Amino acid sequence: ASSLSSSLHRNFFKKTIEAVRIMREKGHEVKIISTSTPPHGIFGTKEKWFMRVGKKDAAEFYNILGSSDLVVQHQGLGTLAQAISARIPVIANVRDLIYEKSPYHAHAWEVSPFAKFGVCSMLFFSASASALAEEIEKLLYDNKAISRMKRRQAMLYTQGERHVFQEVARLVRHSVLSK
């Protein structure tokens, strides 16, 4: 969440924490594992269900991500790609279009093709904590929704692997033929 302005970063954390509190009030044993630092003063008390593991190298980050049941993230395309490759359901939170500096580089436009394909869920930052809690509940406990997203992720990831293989094979053939 470090690429967000401090107010968006704070609001993202507050909303995510409130969504988890809603889930826990319903009796769900949801925990947060965070690799970024929550803004100062975000907690009134020490929450035992919030674990900050700090910055990790790429391999450690992928291991944590890959062992998760769900990823809730800000827009980050790198994290989104890793969640898709690990076949972990993911909720991408994106800036509302009115807060974008440039209409040609809107986070929603970057993430929406993935959401339309069904490999992630997309919520705007203006979505309520209860809307986020509903989406979290769906992607943690609705087996049909979870399976559907994982199938779509597998399709996209497998197609990507096949495309890369075909491109490498084409380049090798071209290299061999041009000698």
Question: What ranges have pLDDT less than 50 throughout 5 or more consecutive residues?
Answer: none
Helix amount: 40-55%
Distance between the termini: 49 Å
Q: Structural class from helices and strands?
A: mainly alpha
- What order do the SSEs take from the amino end to the carboxyl end, as H and E? HEEHEHEHEHH
In what range is the share of β-strand residues?
5-15%
Gyration radius from CA atoms, angstroms: 18 Å
> How large is the count of helical segments?
6
The number of distinct β-strands equals 5
Strand ordering within the main sheet: 3-4-5
Largest sheet: 3 strands, parallel
Mean pLDDT: 84
Record the SSE blueprint.
Blueprint: H1 6-25, E1 32-34, E2 50-52, H2 58-66, E3 71-74, H3 77-86, E4 90-94, H4 107-117, E5 121-124, H5 129-141, H6 143-177
Parallel strand pairs: 1-2, 3-4, 4-5
Helix pairs in contact: 1-5
